[in-house]
Every structure is written in structure tokens, then in C-alpha cells.
Amino acid sequence: MTNVDLDCKGLNCPMPIVKISRAMKELQTGTTLTVTASDPSFKADVEAWVRKMNQKLTSFSDIDGIQTAVIEKVN
Amino acid sequence: MVSKQPLLKKLTDMSDNITISQSELIALVNQLVDQKVNARLADIEASLKSIQGTVGTLSENCPEDRATLVVFSGEMDTLFAAFTIAVGAASMGMEVSMFFTFWGLTALRKDKTYSGKTVGEKMVAMMLPNGPHAVPTSRMNMAGMGPLFFKYLMAQRNIESLPNMIALTQELGIKMVACEMSMGVMGVTRAELLDDIDYGGVATYLGDAAKSKITLFV
Q: Would the CB atoms of A17 and B84 count as touching at under 8 Å?
């Protein structure tokens, strides 16, 4: 499966969501986007974004505040 | 039953004498089938039309995936909140309209002119900030020290500046509408505001707000 990485570390609300939205528009269905972020609201925001946009959050991890979300483009 | 039997016999005898070709029979059957089908189709078409009408009315009244914001205040923090919500909504796939009225017009100001204005308009222009880079904060303004302090704090935390957020709003194709009535009151001209924005009145706002899932007054 093709994957694209997106670094949002150091960015604050709403920029990670803005960048995810832009990156996902460029992706083909079935591709994944791996986003790394340090924004404390990132988990809540990315979950809400995925729900609203009918995409799929494949995995989420948080290691010492560096969060990694894998989003699959299903729509 | 007894009385019908002679009639049945008569009919059977008659039918023996009627000669009909196969093609004539097929044509007759086809004609009868067409008549029946057309009669039924007319009913179905009529009910389809009425359903289409109902669906049309429903979708006209159904809210779109749209957010509408009235931007009334003109301080750094309130404007920042308004633009953050607008940019967030656009990033979540929503159509966004922002209506700028009274103090909110400052967010759209690119420069300030005095020529051709009445004395009153010149006075208002003098008292209004030059643009979004020069707006006060709603609290802790401290004669202009507050905004400097907040700008420093925001830069330190790598938070977008208000002018950057406004630029992003335009980049994302968010509809920005300046209220003509308040522009008149404040003596703001179109030449002083950003290019590529729309102009309108309360009906423009209400038209969009009526179709929105979210509408906010900031």
C-alpha cells in the first residue's frame, strides 16, 4: 500500500487539519497518510476530522507527545 | 346457467366462422397490451412527478454542509477565533461564508485613505486601526502593549499570525462578504478593502445562514 508522510510537528490548531485536508485531496483512494504532530489537541482533532470526512484512522500512537496518526483514504 | 348455454353455443359457432390471420391477432394483442401498459404508466408517471416535487422542496429546505460567520468585532483575539473556525470548517470539507460588519471590516482592510471623505468619515478613519496587523486585543490591550506582547507569545509558540490566517482564508476559497451598510456608516470604501471579496447586505447573510448547519456571531 502506498503511503505519504506529513510532518506537522510544531504546528498548532488549526494548521494540522488544514495540512491533512490538503494532503488527502492529492491522494488516490487506498493510499495512507502518516501524520506526525505535537499539537496537544491533535488526537481529538484528527479523530473528528476523520469522522466528518468519512475517512479511516488506521492507527494512532503517542510517544512522549509526538503523535502519529495513519489515515487511509477510503473516499 | 341453463339459460346461458344456448348463447355460449351460438358464440362458439360464430367464432368458428371468424377467420383471423396470425399477424392480425398479434397486432390486436399488442394493441390491447399497449393500452393496458400506457394506462398503468400514466399513473406511475403522475406519482413519480409528485415525488420529484416533494424531494425538490425537501432538498431546498435541507441545510447544506455550510458554516456561516458574522464577524462583528475587530480585535486580534476575536478575529483570530473567527478565522480559525472558518479555516477549520473549510478544512473539514464545509462551504464557508464570512460576513464582515462594523468593527469586523478592519479584518478586510488593506489600506486607509482620507481623500474624498467627509469630516466625520475622516475622523472615524483616523480612529480605526490601519488593518488586521494593527488591531488591539479585547482584553489587556494596555495602550497597544497587549497586542505586541501577544504577537510575541504567538510567534514563540509558532502560532499563525492574524494576517496569515486571513491570507489562508482567501487561499481556501472561503466566501468573504463586506456589509455595505456598515461600510457606509464607517466611511469605508471598496478601494480600502481586499480584492476578490463580495459585497452584500443582511439578506445575503440570511440567505446563506438559512442553508447552514452552523452559524456564529463573533
A: no
